[in-house]
Amino acid sequence: MKIRIINTVVTATVGCVSFLLVMMSLGAQAQSVSTQSIKGRVPTASGNILIQGPGGLVIEDNVAVSLSAAPAQFSVSPDTTDLILSDSDGDLGLTAEVDSAAGTLIWTSHQTPLTAEQVARAFGAEFAGRTLTVRASAPVTVSSRDGDPRSGTQTLHSATYTLHVPELPLPVTALLVGGAEFPVTSGFPTQGFVGATFQVRLGDTVANNALYTWSTQSDWVSVDSQGRVSFMATPSSTHKTVVIKAIDKVGGGESIYTFTVNEWFIHQGSVAGTASQADSACAAQSGGNYAVPSWTRLSAGPGSARAGDGPLWNAWGSLSAYGAGWHDYSYWARETQGGNRYDVYLASGNVGNNPPASLWFITCSQSL
Questions:
Q1: Where in the chain is the domain with CATH 2.60.40.1080?
Q2: What are φ and ψ of residue 150, in 5° steps?
Q3: Where is the Invasin domain (predicted)?
Q4: Using CA atoms, how far apart are residues 255 and 149, in angstroms rounded to an integer?
Q5: Model pTM?
């Protein structure tokens, strides 16, 4: 009996030890498995990347571009607004980054890709009045706050944009001055006075002028929305050149007219005087070296025609039409003949010769 009891105890003890060893082994295996990373799937993005223009603004489909801009000034936008981010493992904190520097744009005209030279040139140099398309592609990296792997990179594309290149801006074709029309090659105006006004014409009709935004940087000149230029003050010799700009409201193309005023006229309003009084009045003027002008600076002579490069009446016509105190009457001129003094009738450009004691209106001029 004693021997059986001992065998039973030994057997039970061995069984317990074996069970403990098995359990410890399983625990170690479980601990080893729990410390290994579980590989999931990368986060991804869908949707379209965007394209930005020269100013950094995202472009829209079916809009006009500036004639002065070039395709090379467009690029892939870093904007991720239109991207949809997802993670099949449910990882959170998803963000996306567009590699704009590695992006590419494909420009086409009538399904033909633009060459590198065409991409570098302004739209207006070759594609005025035409339609172009552009599509972009770029690497996009999507990252998650947790999970493994935490990021993935893929190539996404933009939508295909249709962009319209406007027609070239209309050229300055004529200058409309007091009922006359002068070519732009006339150099008009070279003379001026406060209150003088003329209109710049674009294309074949002044109706085109409303399609443009007009401006000038000269502080003594103004230009309105219809291209009408007005002289508001006396220019200095260093600011006598004027640049008038007309910018196409649709395409941004720019037309320019430049002129230089070399001679400036003033008058004494409704005050009439003798020839000597005219000389004194002009000599007394401050702010310049004024004198009674030569009759050749007032008119090209009786019966002469209007001319943009002519003297005062031939260039501007009847000065009373501009208001500002001018009269349709005779003004003293500098030259004498015999005992008489020349005068010019500024309603028609006729030249007279009258006694210096006559009472005529007074105008003075100076070179700028």
A1: 172-260
A2: -95, -10
A3: 175-249
A4: 58
A5: 0.71
Interatomic CA distance for residues 158 and 260, integer angstroms: 51
Name the token pair of 172.
């300055």
Asked if 165 and 251 count as a contact pair (C-beta separation under 8 A), the reply is: yes
| CA neighbor of 166 nearest in space, from 65, 281, 79, 51 | 65
For the chain, the C-alpha Rg in angstroms (whole number) is 43
Boundaries of CATH 3.10.100.10 in the chain?
Answer: 264-367
What is the rounded CA–CA span in Å between residue 19 and residue 47? 59
Strands (E), 110-249: 112-113, 131-143, 151-157, 161-164, 172-177, 180-182, 191-193, 197-202, 212-216, 221-223, 228-231, 241-248
Per-residue pLDDT tens, the chain, 368 aa: give them: 333 433 433 344 444 434 444 444 444 444 444 444 457 899 999 999 999 999 999 999 999 998 889 999 999 999 999 999 999 988 899 999 999 999 999 999 999 999 999 999 999 999 999 999 999 999 999 999 988 888 999 999 999 999 999 989 999 999 999 999 999 999 999 999 999 999 999 999 999 999 999 999 999 999 999 999 999 999 999 999 999 999 999 878 899 999 999 999 999 999 999 999 999 999 999 877 999 999 999 999 998 999 999 999 999 999 999 988 999 999 999 999 999 999 999 999 999 999 999 999 999 999 99
Angle subtended at Cα 135 by Cα 129 and Cα 140, rounded to the nearest 5 degrees: 155
Question: Is the CATH number of domain 172-260 2.60.40.1080?
Answer: yes
Which is nearest to 280 in space by CA: 364, 196, 186? 364
Give domain 264-367's CATH superfamily.
Answer: Mannose-Binding Protein A, subunit A (3.10.100.10)
CA 80, chain centre distance (Å): 28
SS3 labels along 299-343? CCCCCCCCCCCCCHHHHHCCHHHHCCCCCCCEEEEEEEECCEEEE
